[in-house]
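User: Sequence in, structure out. Go.
Assistant: Echoing your sequence, followed by the C-alpha cells.
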Amino acid sequence: MNNNTNTTVSYTLRDLVIYFLKLGSWGFGGPVALAEYMHRDLVERRKWISEEDYKEGLALAQLAPGPLAAQLGIYIGYVHYRILGATLTGLAFVLPSFLMVVVLGFIYTKWQGIPWMQAVFYGVGAAVMGIIAMSAYKLTRKSIGSDKWLGSIYLIAAAYTVWKENEDVLLFLGAGIIYWWVKSPNKKISFPKKRPAEIIKSFSFPLLFNMFISSSGNTLWQILLFFTKAGALVFGSGLAIVPFLYGGVVKERAWLNEQQFMDAVAVAMITPGPVVITVAFIGFLVAGFAGACLAAFGTFFPSYVFTVLPAPYFRKYGKSPGIKAFVDGVTAAAIGAISGAVIVLGRRSLIDVYTLTIAVITVIVLLRFKKVPEPVIILTAAGIGLLLKNI
C-alpha cells in the first residue's frame, strides 16, 4: 500500500520488488552500470520515480558509507512505500547475487579453487569495463548538461578519483556546499529542528553495535563484527571496500590467503548485482553458509540504516532551493567520481590487446544496437575468455 497519499503512484510495491529481483539477477557492471539501469528503467522508461527523487537518492548514497547501488535501490523503495518498500527492495536486489555467490562458494570449497573462473573473468571483466564506460557516459550526459559550475565540479571529482584511486566524502560535501552557495539566492538552508540528539544517536548505531560485540571467541561473532565495521566505515562505491577487506581478512586475521581473496573479488565481478557481494563469498569460505549470511548482513545493514534514517528529511526538505542546489552539487561530484573510477578500473582490467578489444567492441555494440541485453554481452564475453585462455 502506498504511504504517500499526496502522490498518485503508477506502480505497486510488488512491481518494484519484481524489478529489483530482476536487476539483481542480470544487472552486471557494478555500481556505475546499476545506477544507470535504475535511471533508465525507473525514471525514463517507466516513469515510476521522478528525476528529483533519483538525484536525491544518488546524493544520499554517495554521502553515506556502504555500497552505492544498494543504497540507491533502498532509497527508491522508500520514495513511495517507506520502510516496507526500502526493506523489500533492498532484500530483492541483494538476494539473487547472494545465492549465486553461495553456490560458487560451495563449488570452490569442494573442488579447491576455480581455474575456469579466471578464464571467464578475463573476458567478462573486459566487457564489464565497456558497459561501465557507457553507463558513465549516459549519466554524465543526462545529469551535467551545459552548466559550467556542475561541469567544473564533475571534472575536479573525476580527476581526484583518478589521482587518488579512491573517493572522499569531503569532496562530495564540498561540492554540494559550493554549488549551494553559487545558486541559492538567500543562502539559507532549513534543517530539521526536532530531536537532533536522537538523530545523531541513531546514526551512530553501527559504531555502538561494534562496542557491544566482543571480538574474541566465536568466529561467527568475529565475522559479524568485522563486516559491520566494513559496511559502516568504508566510503566509496564498488571496489572501494576491497582494500579494507584485504587488510582485515588476509593480513590481520589470515582467514584467507592471497589467491583465495583474489578469487573472491573475481566472483563478485562475474556475478550480477552489487560488487560488494564478495563479502558473502569470503564469509562462506571462512565459516560456511552461516558465515556468508553474517558477512552479508553485517555489510548491508549499516547501509540500510544510513539510507532509511535520513530519507524522511531528504523527502521533506529536498525540494527547497537551497537543498536542491546542494544535492545537484553532490550529484555532479558523484558522477565525476564514477567516471574517474572507470579509468581506475580500466587500468586494472584492460591488461592486453585482447581485453582492450573486447571492451571497445562492447561500447560499439551498445552504441549501435541499443536493444542488445547486457547479459547477452556478458555471456558472449565469458565464452571468448574461455576460448582465449584455452588456446
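User: And one key feature?
Assistant: Residues 9-391 form one domain.
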